[in-house]
Design brief:
By secondary structure, this protein is an alpha+beta fold. The protein contains 6 helices and 25 strands. The chain folds into 3 domains: 15-127, Sandwich (Immunoglobulin-like); 135-238; 245-351, no CATH class. The chain has helices spanning 22-27, 61-72, 127-133, 152-171, 196-209, 347-351; strands at residues 4-5, 12-13, 32-33, 37-43, 49-51, 54-56, 74-75, 80-92, 95-106, 109-124, 139-145, 179-184, 189-193, 213-224, 227-238, 245-249, 252-259, 263-267, 273-276, 285-289, 294-301, 305-309, 316-320, 332-338, 341-344. Bound molecules: zinc ion (ZN) (2 copies).
């Protein structure tokens, strides 16, 4: 190893750190620095932390304290293998003290530093909480159903989707994804929403899962300081037919799978897939529901046909085997009677019961 002369003290040295010998380098070396007093701004209601000009969700005060310290701690740029140990103690609800130990290596040499700081907690109301408490909303989602009243179960299903969507948006940082008010009426449900963006996501999520359509339109909601205030109304229409409904379209009987802009389902005649446009479903009528399925005894099985005992008339009837029909297991098959005709329940609906 070659030996050089330290430009600062003139001693012989084999290692140079930042151009000077080890002794000179560590003489004035500071591994870590931390202000003696730090401030942490949190929301008194939801616990969010205000940092870099915006509010972000947090779990508890302690994690805010830890993050505030981490953000304020500056460590020498030459340090490697850094380990930080923070030990916060709550003194009052408004004040924490913390001991901070930093262990690292500088060019292989172990170095450490012990620091302490005081964290003052400022409690305010974040923009989300102040808007929520003030009843702020940017839009209304009106959940209705086409040509019928939505059922309690459907509205519960909608609310489950609404809450999941809001959680997902909040996780992504949209703090205005919230519901200020929920008003139930005879026709359905009105949701007052914190942001137009969250309203749109909610409507999309509902139509994807349950079906139906939605449209949005601005409406005048009054005046403030001489300015007109607009709010967006999302008109959500749950589908006219829901999964499991059996409808008649022309002379076809269809089990509804999903109804959005188009209707998809299964043709009861042969279990083939069915798809119809909005116009084609205008004349459709509900004629039954797969929950009315009953089991029928199979008398004999041919290659393409089954002879079954009609559970309503107790007469034997021949029915065509539907597409994808699997052999009869215990001598019975689920059937459904629509307008005097017996149909075998399509195989996909056996496991997919509503
Ligand atoms: Zn030196
Ligand atoms: Zn808050």
């Amino acid at each position: 190893m070659t030996s050089t002369i330290c430009p600062k003290c003139g001693n012989n040295t084999s290692i140079l750190l930042s151009g000077i010998c080890k002794e000179c380098f560590f003489e004035n070396f500071v591994l870590a620095q931390l202000p003696q007093v730090l401030q942490a701004k949190i929301c008194a209601t939801c616990g969010a932390r205000f940092t870099r000009g915006r509010w972000t969700d947090e779990y508890d005060v302690e994690s805010v304290v830890l993050k505030t310290i981490e953000d304020s701690l500056s460590i020498h740029e030459a340090a490697e293998d850094i380990e930080i140990c923070i030990n916060p103690r709550q003194l009052t609800p408004h004040m924490y003290k913390a001991e901070v130990e930093v262990v690292a290596r500088i060019q292989g040499e172990p170095v450490s530093s012990e620091l302490s700081t005081e964290i003052r907690i400022l409690r305010e109301s974040c923009e989300m909480c102040s808007r929520m408490s003030g009843g702020y909303f940017e839009g209304i989602i009106q959940i209705r159903a086409a040509e019928r009243i939505p059922s309690e179960d459907e509205l519960d299903a909608c609310m489950r989707i609404v809450n999941l969507t809001i959680d997902r948006m909040r996780d992504k940082g949209d703090r205005l994804a919230f519901i200020t008010d929920t008003i139930k009426s005879k026709e359905g449900l009105d949701l007052y929403i914190g942001s137009v963006n969250s309203g749109r996501h909610i409507c999309k999520a509902i139509t994807e899962e349950i079906g139906g359509t939605f449209s949005e339109s601005p409406s005048l909601f009054g005046q403030k300081d001489g300015k007109e205030i607009y709010r967006i109304t999302f008109s959500m229409r749950l589908p006219r037919f829901t999964p499991g409904d059996i409808i008649a379209i022309g002379n076809r009987k269809i089990v509804v799978k999903h109804m959005g802009k188009k209707l998809t389902g299964t043709n009861l005649m042969d279990s083939s897939r069915f798809i119809a446009t909005e116009e084609e479903t205008v004349q459709a009528k509900q004629v039954g529901h797969i929950r009315d399925t009953v089991d029928a005894v199979v008398v004999s099985e041919e290659e393409n046909e089954l002879m079954i005992l009609d559970p309503f008339t107790f007469r034997t009837v021949n029915v065509k085997k539907p597409i994808g029909f699997s052999p009869v297991e215990d001598g019975e098959i689920p059937v459904i009677r629509i307008e005097e005709t017996l149909f075998i329940l399509p195989p996909e609906w056996r496991t997919n019961k509503i």
